Amino acid sequence: MSLNVPLVTVVIPCYNDKNYIQETVKSVMDQSFKDFEVIIVDDGSDFETKKVLATIKHEKIVLITQENQGLSAARNAGINSANGSYILTIDSDDTFHELFLEKAVEILNNDQTISAVSSYCNIFANENQVISLHASIGGSVEDFLFENNCVSFALFRRKCWLEIGGYDEQMKNGFEDWEFWIRLTKNCGNIYIIPEYLFNYRRKEVSMSKNSKMHHRETNLNYIFKKHIELYRENFSETIDVLTSLAQRNKKNELKYKNSLEFRIGTFVLAPIRWLRKIVKK
User: Fold this and answer.
1) Does the N-terminal or the C-terminal CB of the chain have fewer CB atoms within 10 Å?
2) For a pLDDT cut of 90, what percent of the chain falls above it?
């Protein structure tokens, strides 16, 4: 590998993360493995974030600015400009351990059947206080059909990204990383999870992942199931089990809400209004 061409490109999409982007970049620059470049993609951030981004200057760092197009488009823009054979994706409010790249690069170098490498995850909030732990399992495409078994943070082969057509830019409301892993494991090989807590995921009060689960889960699942309909046909029985389980969970949540104090109070308060409406209609 030429000294002028880095082996790894770290792609950091950034949208209004002025408070965290510098910490994310520092965790990259602190890596024990040094053969990398960094591409930050400013995806239409506000003025305050742009001011912070303007202060981040290093010979290894390139800043790309674009109109807001969403996370998938920002990642694709960064990878399109990448020189590295390996791509590391990390969001602009997260960090990772200084040994991750060293360990992940060695795994990809030594095993061509592996398409991507990630790790166990610390979930933290406030002043970097760890509030929970998450241990993905990775695996083959069968492990990703009904659950996302890898976080968005991972080192993968750029040639695989090219082969499968990058991130799906139509997915603007989350789950884009899950759908990407389905295509990656289907076409390029397994995802390996380092059984160490090397990735730090920041849980914020308002986040895209939380919003997608709260408001777009069913729509995203519908999109993924239809896009990969041949895979779900091949696993028809398991698909029916999952859909039935989702319906049962939704029904349980509905009953729980109807039995809640808030619902009963609301029903009591609105009862006179409903009665008046019936009178007016008569």
Assistant:
1) C
2) 75
Token digits for 109?
């170098």
- In sequence order, which residues have a C-beta less than 8 Å from that of residue 211 and are 6 or more positions away? 173, 174
The mean per-residue pLDDT over the stretch 71-99 comes to 98
**E strand or H helix at 17, and its extent?**
none
Residue-level pLDDT at 1: 42
CA neighbor of 28 nearest in space, from 9, 3, 50: 9
Domain count, the chain: 2
In a domain, 225, yes or no: no
Burial of 94 (0-12, 13-18, 19+ CB in 10 A): buried
Domain that holds residue 102: 8-206
Residues 201 and 253 placed together within one structural domain of the fold: no
The pLDDT score that the predictor gives to residue 204 is 78
Residues 6+ apart with CB under 8 A from 243: none
Ranges of H-type helices in 121-260: 158-164, 176-187, 208-215, 217-227, 229-234, 236-258
